[in-house]
Amino acid sequence: MNLFDVYSLFDIVPVKAHLQHVWDDKGQEYLDFYGGHAVISVGHTHPDYVAALKAQLDKIGFYSNSVINPLQVELAHKLGKASGYEDYSLFLDNSGAESNENALKLASFHTGKDRIIAFHHSFHGRTSGAVAVTDNPKIVSPFNANHKVTFCDLNDAAAVEQVLQGGDVAGVIIEGIQGVGGMHAPTAGFLQTLSKLCKQYGAVLILDEVQSGYGRTGKFFAHQWAGIKADIITMAKGMCNGFPCGGILISPEFEAVKGRLGTTFGGNYLAMAGAIAVLDIMEKEHLADNAHKVGEYIKAHLPQSPKIKEVRGTGLMIGIEFNEPIAEIRRKLLFEKHIFTGVAGTNMIRLLAPLCVTEEDAQYFIDSLKDIIK
Ligand code: PMP
Known about the structure:
The protein is α/β, with parallel strands linked by helices and about 375 residues long.
């Protein structure tokens, strides 16, 4: 049997990793500035994380959500403290798309309405519900209209208000920083207005922090730079450092109705043990602060080059937009300098490094890029 051929693959076989380093089957070492697409938060095979997963596997690996799982309670407690959303509730699932689907569903249940406002260049996942609010022509199918969706321009509050005036809006979904769409961020002022408008018109404000959350920008969630609170926050990627895990934080205004949300694997013992370890490590090693410090170092020291059009992002969520396609630059970074990076569109290199990278790592990346584009 062949694999369904939907991924473009680099000819590299990683077999080992430690913190921000990855080794392939030929023994070549790489610096990971991609983090498996913003998933590696505390670092590959962090010893505390590995120990937590191994210990849990020896006790109990799986049961179902029909019994009490104290690890879910512990995670909720720690996540409330770490995120500042202590009065919210946690629902656990398995991925970013699933988190967004659950958020959209809750918004409709809560308001009895079915329109969602999303933003151009957004990305919220590839399941049919999540893709419906994703503005990416490559992945949108014509048969996914569980919600009516209106797309607005990012930072255009007047356009949002006009749609809200229609009276049929269940919620507004917005990324903390647009990842796949090229690191465009809502301004603090726009988020503050959005928060006010949502309250005024009774719409649910859903912050998709699947990529921008979990300390990546220096705050626990990117929208916290704007000093606002969302009604629902969706999470996944960095939550369990590579073990599949997702979840949503839900404002106390939402009623929990038995059977309304559910999943077989969400909140499983192994994901919980890993996710608790991630929060403990983040706190102990001040990884959000480190992400901000190293990210700002990168932005301040990137080479001045006519080839670079703009640099966007906060902390370790950085997009370097070039005036030309970057495929060759990215290939050279990988095969000559041995640095993994990400991409957005054709002209942007995207950096989503593990939160534990150092300024020395950053300098190596900067020197390598300088050398390639000189
Ligand atoms: N939301 C955002 C902002 C994302 O970046 C992604 C993944 N790139 C998703 C949702 C979907 O997450 P998953 O692939 O885990 O379903």
